[in-house]
Each structure stands twice: as structure tokens, then as C-alpha cells.
Amino acid sequence: MGLSGVNTCLKWLMFVFNLIFFLMGAAILGVGIWLKVEKGGYEDISSYDYATPSNIAIVIGIVMLFVAFLGCFGSIKELRHMLLAYFVLLLIVFILELVVGGLAYAKRDEVEDKLAEEFKNSIRKKYGTDDYPEVTEVIDKFQNEFECCGFDNYTDYRGSTYTIKSLTIPKSCCMKDKKDNPKCGDTDPGAIVVYETKGCYNEVLDFLKYNLFVVGTFAIIFAVIQILGMVFSMVLYCAISKDQKGTLA
Length: 249
Prior knowledge:
Blueprint: H1 6-39, H2 53-76, H3 80-106, H4 108-126, H5 133-145, H6 161-166, H7 201-248
Helix pairs in contact: 1-2, 1-7, 2-3, 2-7, 3-7
């Protein structure tokens, strides 16, 4: 026997609520995949392989899709065990979010310093080598897209493995309208046609911070939805239990 009256409204409210939740999860997953494909790459020069905005968005999106499915199916079919699983999963994820968020905030300066150190090391020792082709590709991508050169500026390549070997500065450092210039990459100060004063680190860091802000905003919205979801699921769980007991009586 199904629910009736106010409880039926609650069931459909729970269903619609989680349907919206599902669509939001799909949107966040899409954003994460887009960031990974179009704007990813920093992980290739960082030891923080997984803690990137794209990966965080992908994980959040997948979790939201799975949890929303439990909520939709459990509410429409009036399945108490699925609603209970939905509540427990939301609670666990909520606690993990608090823990991870707290740790990330506490270690934010340490993480930033580590990223800076690894970026410098990649420019000086890994760029242009056969052992790290992915690093070369990513740094070239940064220098082309952000119109920058080196960590702070083009002089960061002086003494680097790449410049010692090639006696040039990477062509990706050259200004867009100078890519075909025969002096592109020339280390002679009088012939430089590269981005001289604009380093890449701050550009990349600003990009990462912006994307983390976007992901963080979604995470806060997700947290509020989680709390509402937990409340709805327990109210509906209790209503189904009471209705089933009444039916058995």
C-alpha cells in the first residue's frame, strides 16, 4: 500500500529534489571533464596528481549522480533500505568534505610552495628532455595560452637543461606575432622576441585558484543540498515505516 496525503507529496518532492541533484551532478561532471581535456596539464609537473580542480569536479559529479539515483529510486519505489543507504552515504560524504576542506585550508600555503618548487624544477631540469615529454608539452601549452615565459620571466631558462643543450629559449615563449621570426628563441638580449617580463607561475596559479573557487562554490551548494537531502530522506523513511506498520496492524 502506497503513501497518502502529505506523505505522497513528500515522496514526489524528494524525487524532484534528487532529479535536480542528478542534473547538477551531470553538469559538474561535464565541467570537470572539460577542465581535464581543455585546461588540464598542471598535474604533469606536480606531485599532486589527483588534487586538481578537474579531478575534484569529476569526483563530486560522479558522487552526486550515484547519490541522486539512490534518492530518486528509493523515494519513488518507497524503499526504506535505499533511503537509509542514501542518508548514510550523504552523511559519510559530508563528513569527508569537512575533513578534506579543513586539511586543504590548513595546508594551503605548504601546497602552494610545493607547486612553485616543482614548477621551477620542471623548467630547469625536465623541460626539453626525452625522459619528460609530457612536461615539455604542458609548459609549452602554458606559455602559448597564457602568453608568458618561464617561472618569473624568460631568464629562468638560463642554465636550464634545455638552454644548455639547444642554446635557445623555447619557441613557445615567443610573442604570437613573432613565432616565425628567425630570432625567435634567441638568447641574445638585443634580439629577444619572447615575453620578457611575464612569468607563467602566477598566471597558472590564478587560473587554478579561479577554478578551485568555482569547484568550491559548487561544493558549498552540494553541502547545503546534502543537509536537505538527509532531512528529506529521514522524514520519508519514518513516514514509510509508519505507513507500513499501520498497514500490518
